[in-house]
Design goal:
Helix content is about 60%, strand content about 0%. By secondary structure, it is an all-alpha fold. It has one domain (about 10-80). α3 crosses α4.
Length: about 80
């Protein structure tokens, strides 16, 4: 089981930023991915979006994909799960 840490964000901060907790997670994931601090696999998990949805979001924000060996491995695993490989 994966350990989980809790980040407490006061509601007034979320209100000031006009964000929900879900949107904050997504913004954090996009930022960390764009800075090269998270892989696309980990970033989409943080954002709680499917890989496809997260990649679409990145494209809509003109953030180039970072495609590395881990990403390739994930894609191959997904294709195997789908019975396409």
């Amino acid at each position: 089981m994966t350990d989980t840490n809790v980040l407490k964000v006061p509601q007034d901060i979320l209100d000031s930023a006009r964000l929900t907790m879900s949107e904050l997670r997504t913004e954090m994931a996009v930022y960390l991915y764009s800075q090269g601090r998270l892989s696309v696999g980990k970033a989409h998990e943080l954002a709680e979006l499917s890989l496809w949805e997260f990649r679409q979001l990145l494209a809509s924000r003109h953030i180039s994909p970072h495609y590395d060996e881990e990403d390739l491995d994930q894609d191959i695993a997904t294709l195997r799960e789908m019975g396409r490989l």
